[in-house]
Amino acid sequence: MKFQPVLDEIDAEIRPLLGAGGTVASYIPALARVPAAQFGMALRTCDGQEAHAGDANKPFSIQSVSKLFTLTLAMQRLGEALWERIGREPSGNPFNSLVQLENEQGKPRNPFINAGAIAVADRLLSLFGREAKTDVLELMNSLTGDPISFDVEVAASEAATGYRNYALANFMKSFGKLDNDVETVLDMYFHQCALSMSCVQLARAAGYLCRDGVHPWAPGVNLLTERQTRRINSLMLTCGTYDAAGEFAFRIGLPCKSGVGGGIVAVVPDQLTLAVWSPALDATGNSLLGMKALELFVTKTGLSVF
Ligand code: GLU
User: Fold this and answer.
1) Per-residue pLDDT tens digits for 47-70
2) CA–CA gap between residue 98 and residue 101 (Å, rounded)
3) Of the residues 98, 217, 268, 303, which has the maximum number of CB atoms within 10 A of its CB?
4) Which residues form the catalytic set?
């Protein structure tokens, strides 16, 4: 299938809708300043075909999409032991909910809600120590072939205002579920969320998720086993888009991971990875037009896991 005409068509349908709905994330001041009327989309097939449209080369704050990559690093090193501290069920609650965490004695429902990703960051710090942030950058550099960096302004902005994330981390610490101190864990978490990447880079970086764990470029290098990759895709489908995972499955039917910067990564197993970005979010914290673009893609191509 030739994908470039498909993405051009979607871009033409989305562009008139820019600015017509949704709001940028305002609880992180550096994100509140991002102009809402932008849209980009990129894909990369398992055999290396690429296509992109709109603002696909413009870097943005990937926010929770980073949870995919830190989970990958943790799964590589910890195997089954990772799941002693983190569950695998959809939360059915907002991504930063405190109530559920208290009811469940500091064990996050899944690795994609904030509490779960903070727990993963803690595990990475125990494994890699002070190098943990560098290890995340090295992974992203290797997956994209580009020098990827943290947007330090976004990280500082979140550190200055991340009251809920401090509350979540303190809760987990009080239940003995974090090994490192709260400041260090959140510094790691805020930096991973502040990774700055474009749709083209994200579609490339996620390539191992449609290739049974095989590195998107390097022949013979496995990031994850086939089984681990299947598990990440399942978690994306059931937990990757906050408490709109049911709606995503209903309308799109692909494993997806979204972030409050307006990015969404989607996987068509054995075929391709897609990244979309548009900063205006709906009430569930997902990119309004990003979701619409994915729905159009599935409708036009018939590519879905269902
Ligand atoms: N850094 C954001 C936060 O912790 C990430 C949220 C998201 O993208 O879902 O609130």
Assistant:
1) 999 999 999 999 999 999 999 999
2) 5
3) 268
4) 64, 67, 189, 242, 260
Q: How many distinct structural domains can be found in the chain? A: 1
Closest CA to 165 of 222, 100, 117, 93: 117
**Structure tokens belonging to residue 292:** 């619409």
pLDDT at 17 over 80: yes
* Res 19: pLDDT: 87
CA dihedral sign, ordered 250, 253, 258, 260: negative
Is the shortest distance between the CB of 165 and ligand 1 below 6 Å? yes
How many percent of the chain have pLDDT more than 90? 90
**Measured from the CB, is residue 286 less than 6 Å from ligand 1?**
no
Q: Is residue 306 in a domain?
A: no
Cα(218) to ligand 1 centroid in Å equals 31
Mean pLDDT, range 288-302, rounded to an integer: 98
**Residue 156 structural domain:** 4-301
The enclosing domain of 63 has a CATH number of 3.40.710.10
Torsion of CA 191, 84, 99, 235, to 10 degrees: 70
